[in-house]
Design a protein that fits this description.
It is built from seven helices and eight strands. The protein is α/β, with parallel strands linked by helices. A four-stranded parallel sheet has the order 2-1-3-4, with helices on both faces. It has a four-stranded parallel sheet with strand order 6-5-7-8, sandwiched between helices. Helix 5 runs parallel beside helix 6 (225-232).
Length: 249
């Protein structure tokens, strides 16, 4: 990636698919990095939350629910790619880096282009993970079935070990369109507990026993990065950590 740091301090653009209660796009504001402050009770562990990042962010909604993209239908992918491209184009002049807020944007990685460095999915980091050792690479993902479908044509698919969380009581809440504003809210502590139980089990006796690294597909996972690293104890790739490193945080 080139052309980083157009400004005196780093600025990040975040493109999200839609969900009830997500922060509105800030790209139409006079200062797109000066969106209204989130409510104090809003969870901070998600990429579109300004307090998740150590630098200013601009946020753009690309429309369409994530599950429409997850299904991988060509006509839906083409439509969503256009929406994401439009969001990227509007953010690009103002940002040093643009990231996607759904790992399933991997489907549109080739269709969306920009002169501003753009990373739509942590799965775009797979070449680094695969090249770091000859061992299998774990993918910790939201939904195993959809991710297996998305990666079916990957040239190194036989080295991928995919584990999903969408069947767990708290993680399954992300299927609901209104998960972000649900009352009571999805518990961060319970998300962490369920995630770590899976990590420990899969590392000891499951799909992650022989892996040399792991990639975090779901953008709800980087908030638990330190816990995941402690549980799995292999190099861990995620979109937030990579973005922060690129922007010097």
């Amino acid at each position: 990636m080139t052309n980083l740091r157009k400004h005196n301090s780093p600025r990040l653009g975040v493109v999200s698919l839609d969900a009830t209660g997500y922060p509105s796009s800030s790209i139409d504001l006079p200062n797109l990095f000066d969106a209204p402050a989130p409510r104090p009770d809003e969870p901070t562990g998600y990429l579109f939350h300004p307090n998740f990042w150590p630098f200013p962010i601009a946020h753009a909604l690309a429309g369409t629910r994530p599950e429409v993209l997850c299904e991988g239908k060509p006509e839906a992918i083409k439509f969503i790619a256009k929406n994401i491209q439009d969001a990227v184009d509007r953010l690009a002049p103002h940002c040093d880096l643009i990231v996607g807020n759904c790992g399933y944007m991997y489907y549109v990685r080739s269709a969306v282009q920009s002169e501003t460095p753009t990373l739509l999915s942590a799965l775009e980091l797979l070449p680094y993970a695969l090249g770091s050792s000859t061992r299998p690479v774990g993918i910790l993902t939201f939904d195993k079935k959809f991710t297996e479908q998305m990666m079916a044509d990957h040239p190194d698919v036989t080295r991928l070990r995919i584990v999903g969380l969408s069947d767990l009581p708290n993680w399954s809440a992300f299927w609901d369109r209104d998960w972000y504003v649900k009352n009571p809210r999805v518990s961060t502590d319970e998300l962490r507990r369920e995630l770590l139980e899976v990590c420990l089990r899969e590392r000891q006796t499951g799909a992650f026993t022989e892996i040399g690294s792991v990639v975090l597909e779901c953008t709800a996972m980087p908030q638990f990065r330190a816990d995941i690293v402690a549980a799995i104890r292999v190099p861990t790739w995620d979109i937030a950590g990579f973005a922060k490193s690129l922007l010097g945080a």
